[in-house]
Amino acid sequence: MAGLLSVACALMPAARSAESSDWPTRPVTLVVPFPPGGGNDTVARQIAGPAGLALGQPLVVENRPGAGGTIGSATVARARPDGHTLLLCSTSSLVVANALYPSLPYRVDDLAPVVHIANTPTIWVADPGAPVSTLKEFIAAARQAPGKYSYASGGKNTMPHLAGQEVKARNGLDMLHVPYRGSTPAYADLATGRVNLMMDSIVSALPFVESGRVKGLAVSMDQRMPRIPSVPTLAEQGLGDLGFVGWVGICAPRDTPPAITARVARGVQQALADPALRETFAKEIVEPIGEGPEAFARTIERDALAWRQIIATSRASERD
């Protein structure tokens, strides 16, 4: 991870004052390594329009899901570093994947941090028929009935999967993990009780909780959400350390010219200053950040260490 800061510093505008005046010459592809409809995809589509206007060319979202976000990430890591192919990088696809898979075809340093778009708080949800109203109660019920309950995720070794593993390891629970191709299809089974528990971003989960299709058990925020006031916080339940918060940002192939990545960062920062977008994010409980390469690199490095420790504690592996 030491190389991240040096890469980030090289991306600063001071490193090269000349702009690439002929960029972008065509629409810019923003690869989202997850299926449509999830939290990452939602943020990408919301930022793409105003950021594209700022850049002078459309920012086109392209979904390339699979293998916990690693397929799309590897595609961008191998892409021509001309600024026309970018990655919506996230906690799951960058730091979690690299901590889990030493044999990945890309490393963290193959993708240069460009701009930290937003943080996405999480929520624990259960099937509507579960005889519990909080995550603490669910843990107690699962402890009393080994093998009865299961938990879903949007893919093997994604952040929600590993969060579930952490709950199992800490509490000695016997629960089956059921992975899906993204969180959206997982909700169909969660709503009917075929699976019982899932952690997800609030962006994805809120419509299902508000409609009553799933039951909210705990939010990772400091206070209860006015839109779902019956859902307690993790801290209220003494489970504050299960408040996994994801982030999303934009990364570029490692050798992308610093003048181009600086323009991308400024374009996203300009988009995030738009009151309409900030209002949309606020409604969906997405926290806009907008930090540039150096600060984003520090966030990635910090979370890489944290998730290595979580993975070690939960005994997660490629074979789990």
TrEMBL record:
| Record-linked InterPro entries | BUG, Bug_dom1
Q: Which CDD domains match?
A: PBP2_Bug_TTT (cd07012)
Pfam families in the record: TctC
Superkingdom assignment:
Bacteria
Q: Which residues form the signal peptide?
A: none
Family of the protein in this entry:
Belongs to the UPF0065 (bug) family.
Q: What is this protein called?
A: Tripartite tricarboxylate transporter substrate binding protein
Source species: Achromobacter pestifer
